[in-house]
Amino acid sequence: MWADRQSALHPRGDQAGFSAEAGWAMVLGGAGIFVLVMLLLALALYGPQRWRRHLYARGWLIGAGVVFPVAVLSALLVYSLGLAAAMQRNDAPAAVRIEVMGEMWWWRVRYLDEHGQALFETANEIRLPVDQPVDLLLASHNVVHSFWVPNLAGKRDMVPGHVNRLRVRARETGSLRGQCAEYCGAQHANMMLDVQVLSAAEFQAWMRAQRRPAAPAQDGQARLLQGRQVFMQACARCHTVRGTAAAGTQGPDLTHVGSRPSLAAGVLPNNAGTLAGWIAGSQHIKPGNGMPAFKHLSGEQLRAVARYLESLQ
Amino acid sequence: MRPDTLPNALPRPAGEREQLERLWRRPTGWRAITVVNNNYVGLLYIGTAMLFFLLAGILALLMRTQLAVPDNDLIGHALYNQLFTMHGTVMMFLFAVPAVEAMAVLLLPNMLGARDLPFPRLSSYAYWAYAIGGLVFFCSIFVGLAPDGGWFMYPPLTSTAYSPAINADLWLLGIGFIEISAIAGAIELAVGILRTRAPGMSLDKLPIFAWIMLAFSGMVIIAFPAVIVATALLELERAFGMPFFIADKGGDPLLWQHLFWLFGHPEVYIIFLPAAGMVSMIVPAMAGRPLVGYRAVVMAVVATSFLSFGLWVHHMFASGIPQLSLSFASAASMAVSIPTGIQIFAWIATIAAAPRLRPVKTPLLFILGFFFIFVLGGLTGVMVAVIPFDWQAHDTYFIVAHLHYVLVGGMVFPLFAAFYYWMPFVSRRALSERLGRWAFWLMFIGFNLGFFPMHLTGLAGMPRRVYTYADSYGWGALNLASTIGAYIIAAGVLVFLVDLARNFRPSVAHNAGNVWRAGTLEWLPAGVAGPRSVPWVGSREPLWDQPGLAADVDAGRYYLPGALTGERTTLVTSAIEARPQYVLRLPGPGWPPVLAALGTAGFFLLLTVKLMVPAALFGVLAIAMILRWLWDADPAPTHAPVDVGGGWRLPVFCTGSGSHSWWAMVMLIMVCGSIFSALLFAYFFLWTVAPRGWPAADALVALPVPLSGAALLVFSSVLVWAGGRGLQHGRQGWVRIGLPLGCLMLAAAVGLEAAAQWRTGLRPPDSAYAAAVYAVIGLQALLVAALGFMGLFTAARSWAGRLAADRRACFDNTALLWHYTVVQGLLGTCVLHGFPRWVG
Predict the structure, then answer these.
(1) Chain A to chain B, count of Cβ pairs less than 8 Å apart?
(2) Is there a domain that residue A124 lies in?
(3) Residue A217 falls inside a structural domain
(4) Is the residue at A58 inside a domain?
(5) Which residues pair with B650 in a beta bridge?
(6) Contacts B292 to A, Cβ<8 Å
(7) How does residue B1 score in pLDDT terms, banded at 50, 70 and 90?
(8) Is the CB of A26 inside 8 Å of chain B's CB atoms?
(9) pLDDT, tens digit, 9 for 90 and up, residues B625-635
(10) C-beta atoms of A144 and B154 within 8 A
């Protein structure tokens, strides 16, 4: 279907469904009113005198200008506030709680346990179980961002000093896209997010996999060992790979980077070639982002470190 | 009060008309820029605003070119982010608001039957400050220093941590002071509308455009101070580390959003209402019949201007603030569409009732286009007022579509209608009907092709303010359509420019005249001095209802047919009934306003680039020139009351609350009050965010300090009051001693306060609390500094013999502001010392 991966027109969640319902109701009503007003205008301009006479009668101004809009808008207000209240209601406890932090210009994602402690950290992707209420806790330590996955729900800002909660419930499985919706500086345009809605079993399997530290590179995999060595020298200051000495927190956690659908917050597809290209040309691909371009690495080193990262499934 | 016979007899004395025209003539050569007449300044003003419209339009074309295809690398993020920031900023602050103010400066005096606005030098000052400041501001984009934080400038993105370069300062200081120019214009227009109407033009006969400009002025006076405070706070944060918006120190980025939209939403109506006022003038003229529902339209305008202050939160639906605030803003946003609906149906009714309308002329064509576009924009406006829908639409291309439907439909199309309609008022020739139709259809088709698809682009997931997008999203075709539409609009504007080049022959004295057979006073025969004589007005469309009016006015048979005092003069009338009260002597051309504008613009712009010494020199130039110009204001009452015709002998001066300058000062005090209120809002807002940042009672300044400060304030007011009493009885002593002494007391009070806070160890960068405290003190200090100039200036006038019982406007206005400052100081003291004790 046309443009349906990141679209409010194709709701795949409860919240987005409510918004779309309100939207369609108003599009229909609004189109009707628009046609009516244009017809009246045409009538006023070109209609026969006996019809036009009614248009400047005193009662008309009150009827069309006051009574009709007050009636329509009151009904709309009652309907929409009811809808907004329904959308804010959270009767069931959340099955999953995810903390999402807006970074410049990527997403730091932490899955939380029932005590609010982080189970694991990942970046630029969120996976959700279908048909389960999920709470997203949205925050930022830098500038204002806005979390928006239109197929699931409307947007919610990430404001420094505040934590905003967004309750979502996906209705069907599939992969979706989200994007930062509040202008946040140089690479606001390239701050995307992958969202995958999984079945309960797939989701549990993924959670288990994510909680595990990275699998150590085996002896005999010389390429991977070399790649890990390069990684520890060049990348570990900013990136974490759980299970290794790499514990930097400035950039995304890369423990399972190989399993993610895309790189650089949705800019590139994820494979060994794009990984190497990104490491060498990050400033060309996404100018101004926080990661320096590692141009001094040799082709051999780049390929090795890319293979290593790809292996972090 | 209708005169039974015409006030003045024929024949008029020889040379009377010639003297009038000589006095009002524009200076020639390089002194031409010192002109102060509203018609010349108004034309320059509109021309400059249109220049900014074209420049910001070119920025839009650049953006549309970049977005025409996916993954385009024509324009990088750095330039693109400057482009959309400048496009929004320039369109809003340098085009839309100045353009409607400029139309009012040009049209209102003639529409009201006045010869000029009451403060001609202020018009000149406001214009030049805007023109110089605006042009330099715009040029920043050529050197890559243009602001790039979005026209809404949300911190923390615009705070020093994320925008260390001067781009953001340029916005804060550049735009901040252009707002001051807009406020100056608004005060002048309001005083002009209230006090310089033709005799008989009571408020119920006021042309709708004038009613709307009155509402406009009120809205500018209340709304602009909010953004002035916001920009000042952010600049204080950037320059001195006062953490108003830094969450770690008790600040809150949402404070900016509240203050900005508290201004930003009324701003939309500040732009739209004057355009609606133009429509309400043009439709009746084209229809040949008065507006249907005049009273309903006036009430609708007043209602809109009030409601517009209640819905700023609808820009923050996604920010996570409580549901109750959202619901209130949602309801208010819907309610505001009702008065707008009333206006639309009043125009449709007037069209229906038209005895003559066809063939449809170009001005009406633009208005029909306005109906189509604006009604659509209004309907999408109701959609985004609905919270569940707005959560999706907010900050997407749907909003880009909506806001352009509202602003281009609601303001630009009526403005072009106004250009075609009023061109014969300022040009020897009307514009071409044929080219006008081309311009209209190109703009109309281009607009809808360009902006309608954006509704869909937004709902299909495209956020605003992105410099590129991937092909895979499927937004390419819609964006290409939008880009083609943008270029078609540009072609339409180009046709308009060709029309201007071919047919616009500016002339104030020999205009094409009343080609539309319209009924309002601006279509009277007029020269450089406005109409030859000031008519008596007995209806809303005097040219339709008072036969022979144009000929009699032009023959000089109405009031004030010549220069009775040998100077430029206009009539001042009472605010409601428009009864003649006195003859206002107006100043002629001069350098001080132009140089003061240069000084003001230079001061703020050099401050941006941190050139402190040159900035200070420009500041001194500005203040010196303003004092120079005020030195000649309030001239001595040299003439006995003069006969303006019809047996009315009017004084040539006025003191006390009847004076037009007193009214202007009251409005200035309203501005100061709004600024202070916005600052107190910030103080209390920050308290709600981080109440634990407020100190316990024992950490506060001990009570004797604020009490003695308050005593100083009250005592200084008593001194000023005594000075006024003395002046009434011809004694100057209290003024000469009391005012300088009072200045010292004011300064001592604010100095005492600041020093006491400092001694408790409180430093401005410590916390949001500390920053708020010093901001309240700083505002007081700023007013005290202004009063220092005014007090010493008044004392100097006393020594120079320019102050007397019947020449005391300078003293009265200083005293008004003085008492206000004392009240503000006492309130500030209560808040700073009382509130923490009360909640502590």
Answers:
(1) 243
(2) yes
(3) no
(4) yes
(5) B642
(6) 56, 61
(7) low
(8) yes
(9) 999 999 998 88
(10) yes
Question: How far A269 CA lies from chain B's nearest CA (Å)?
Answer: 12
Instruction: Determine whether the interchain pair B323/A88 forms a contact, defined as Cβ–Cβ distance below 8 Å.
Output: yes
Question: Residue A291 belongs to what domain range?
Answer: 222-311
Cα separation, B88 vs B152, in Å, equals 9
Domain boundaries defined on chain B: 38-503, 517-589+619-650, 668-839
DSSP character at residue B537: -
| B327 chain-A contacts, CB cut-off 8 A | 81, 84
Residues in chain A within 8 Å Cβ distance of B81: 185-186, 188
Rounded to the nearest integer, the mean pLDDT of chain B is 94
* Same domain for A70 and A163: no
Same domain, A126 and A35: no
Which of A27, A159, A165, A195 has the highest number of chain B CBs within 10 A, making it the mutation to test binding with B? A159
Tokens of B834: 């009382």
Task: Look at residue B429 in the predicted model and tell me its pLDDT.
Answer: 93
Same-domain status, A83 and A103: no
- For A7-47, write each residue's pLDDT tens digit: 999 999 999 999 999 999 999 999 999 999 999 999 999 99
Q: Which CATH fold would you assign to the domain B668-839?
A: Four Helix Bundle (Hemerythrin (Met), subunit A) (1.20.120)
Which of these three, A162, A191, A211, is where a domain ends? Answer: A211
pLDDT digits (tens, 9 = 90+) for A233-243: 999 999 999 99
* Digit-coded pLDDT (tens) for B199-241: 999 999 999 999 999 999 999 999 999 999 999 999 999 999 9
A140 plus A102 within the same structural domain? yes
- What's the structural domain count of chain A? 3
Tell me whether residue B704 is exposed, middle or buried, using C-beta atoms within 10 angstroms of its C-beta: 0 to 12, 13 to 18, 19 or more.
exposed
A168 chain-B contacts, CB cut-off 8 A: none
pLDDT attached to residue B783? 97
**B324 pLDDT tier (thresholds 50, 70, 90):** confident
The whole-angstrom separation of Cα A101 and Cα B801 is 69
**d(C-alpha B87, C-alpha B92), whole Å:** 8
Q: In this complex, is the C-beta atom of A38 within 8 Å of any C-beta atom belonging to chain B?
A: yes
Domain match, A79 and A50 both? yes
E strands along B391-496, which residues?
A: none
Q: What is the C-alpha separation between B387 and B364, in angstroms, rounded?
A: 36
Establish if A216 belongs to a structural domain. Answer: no
| Terminal Cα distance for chain B, rounded | 63
pLDDT at B835: 96
Taking contacts as CB-CB distances below 8 angstroms, the residues of chain B near A45 are 351, 357-358, 360, 368
State the Rg of chain B over Cα: 27
What is this model's ipTM?
Answer: 0.97
Residues pairing with B101 in the sheet: none
What is the reported pTM?
0.96
CB contacts of A154 in chain B (<8 Å) are 318, 388, 390-392, 394
Separation of alpha carbons A282 and B568, rounded Å:
69
A115 & A170 share domain:
yes
| SS3 category, B159 | coil
The answer to whether A3 contacts B460, with C-beta atoms less than 8 Å apart, is yes
The class level of CATH for B38-503 reads mainly alpha
pLDDT over 80 at B550, yes or no: yes
- Looking at the complex, report in whole angstroms how far the Cα of residue A248 sits from the nearest Cα belonging to chain B: 22
Is the pLDDT assigned to residue B599 strictly greater than 60? Answer: yes
Domain containing A267 — which CATH number? 2.60.40.420
Q: Give yes or no: residues A161 and A238 share one domain.
A: no
A186 and A110 in a single domain? The answer is yes
Partners of B527 in the β-ladder = B530
